[in-house]
Design a protein that fits this description.
It comes from Erythroxylum novogranatense. InterPro entries: HDACs, His_deacetylse_dom, His_deacetylse_dom_sf, Ureohydrolase_dom_sf. One of its GO terms (cellular component) is cytoplasm. The relative contact order is 0.13. An eight-stranded parallel sheet has the order 5-4-8-13-12-9-10-11, sandwiched between helices. A three-stranded antiparallel sheet has the order 1-2-3, with no helix packed on it. Helices cover 40% and strands 14% of the residues. It has helices spanning 2-10, 17-21, 53-56, 85-95, 100-103, 118-122, 127-143, 160-184, 215-227, 243-248, 295-313, 339-356, 371-386, 392-395, 406-419, and strands at 24-27, 36-39, 42-43, 64-69, 107-109, 146-147, 155-156, 190-195, 232-236, 255-262, 284-289, 317-322, 361-365. The protein has 422 residues and is of the alpha/beta class. The radius of gyration is 20 Å and the shape is globular. Helix 12 runs parallel beside helix 13 (371-386).
């Protein structure tokens, strides 16, 4: 924890502002309305997701559908979870012609969505926490910025509560659209929620580790409650353990949570022996990977752990906590994934969803704090969804990689396979 904190203090943010602000901007609207993105020359309307809208968006022709909630008002200067993260991704997608305006109906941006409701969030978090955060907004308005928990540098500004609801709502709208598309298409689009604040550390009783509301967890309950999809498989490949999602479903037999993360990293949870409790015993799988694990390790984990787990669980939908902070260039950890690693993960998870649950799959952005590696890796994930060739060789530098600790990786994989009878 000490080394992680030191890295956070020494983090230097790459300045992408000049790049993306020239072509679009992200604006905070009054509380009485909602938070929407605007592009130069046209405004994007925001309203409740309308089932009749799905046909007009031609979802059956789409390979990717994404939503954007940049939370520009939720920002602390020099904080690694920067307000520049989502704009850097959007700028890269535009530059590489992987966004909606370049791909017709092949890639669709869903901009008609409403914020999550208090009831949506309270399906995972305690009502006392949700109400308390809402009340804290007055304090944040007066002071400019407040810290809202003690276990990590999680802060709030005057817009944090509303923007966190918008982020969760962006994910729910994607889930609705992907589920609807799967009813009429054998190859529905993959959803990707480009949102912040992230969510997988937020525990049921409060925020933690940069995270405010558990976006993936809220979506999992929404899938069950609204769409009647009982069995939800959650893959979390963020470099840090998704302890909030872990805790939310620890005793739930119908939600399988699988997390790969760096051993010993923040927040210190996610031991291999944490497998669930009561009726949920066996539906939590934690695989801590030794520092230095990279592409070979993750490909092996996917083949030997993730695939057999998913096949045995037989999910109705796959949700993904997509953290890009395991990248070798990321400042907050010590794994050495590459852009190519994320391409493979995206392609393989899409295929897994197609094989097991009619292609129903939605990714949710979690970590990723080097803006260049983050934006390139998300863009290559989009290429994987499209079945296009990876451009990882243009971005990855093999010279920065070192030998993976494959003996330790094998020991970790064998241990989890034994515990879970894989």
């Amino acid at each position: 924890m000490l080394s992680w904190a030191c890295k956070w203090r020494n983090f230097k943010r790459h300045n992408f502002a000049a790049e993306f602000l020239g072509c679009r901007h992200f604006e905070k609207l009054p509380k009485s309305k909602r938070y929407c993105r605007e592009t130069i020359g046209s405004s994007i309307l925001c309203s409740q997701n309308d089932p009749n809208l799905l046909s007009s968006l031609k979802l059956n022709d789409a390979r990717i559908i994404y939503s954007v909630a940049a939370a520009m008002g939720h920002n602390q200067e020099s904080h690694p979870e920067s307000h520049l993260r989502v704009p850097a991704i959007v700028s890269a997608l535009d530059r590489m012609e992987l966004s909606a305006k370049f791909r017709g109906t092949e890639i669709i941006e869903l901009d008609h969505f409403k914020p999550a409701s208090v009831d949506d969030v309270a399906s995972v978090h305690s009502k006392n926490y949700v109400a308390g955060l809402q009340k804290a907004m007055d304090q944040a308005s007066q002071q400019g910025l407040i810290y809202i928990e003690r276990t990590g540098p999680t802060y709030a500004t005057a817009s944090t509560y509303q923007e966190s609801l918008v982020a969760a709502g962006a994910g729910l709208a994607l889930v609705d659209s992907v589920v609807a598309a799967a009813e009429s298409s054998h190859n529905p689009p993959v959803g990707f929620a480009l949102i912040r604040p992230p969510g997988h550390h937020a525990i049921p009783k409060g925020p933690m580790g940069f995270c405010v509301f558990g976006n993936v967890a809220v979506a999992a309950r929404h899938v069950q409650r609204v769409h009647g999809l009982k069995r939800v498989f959650i893959i979390d490949f963020d470099v840090h353990h998704g302890n909030g999602t872990n805790d939310a479903f620890y005793d739930d037999p119908d939600i399988f949570f699988l997390s790969t993360h760096q051993d010993g990293s923040y927040p210190g949870t996610g031991r291999v022996v944490e497998v669930g409790h009561g009726d949920g015993e066996g539906t939590t799988l934690n695989l801590p990977l030794p520092g230095g694990s990279g592409d070979i390790a993750m490909r092996t984990v996917f083949d030997e752990v993730i695939v057999p787990c998913a096949q045995r669980f037989k999910p109705d939908i796959i949700l993904v906590s997509a953290g890009y902070d395991a990248h070798v260039l990321d400042p907050l950890a010590s794994l050495q994934f590459t852009t190519g690693t994320y391409y493979s993960l995206a392609a393989n998870i899409k295929q897994l969803a197609k094989d097991l649950c009619k292609g129903r799959c939605v990714f949710f952005l979690e970590g990723g704090y080097n803006l260049e590696s983050l934006s390139h890796s998300v863009a290559d994930s989009f290429r994987a969804f499209l079945g296009e060739t990876s451009l990882a060789r243009e971005f990855d530098n093999p010279a920065v990689l070192y030998e993976e600790p494959l003996t330790k990786v094998k020991q970790a994989i064998d241990k989890v396979k034994t515990i879970h009878s894989l």
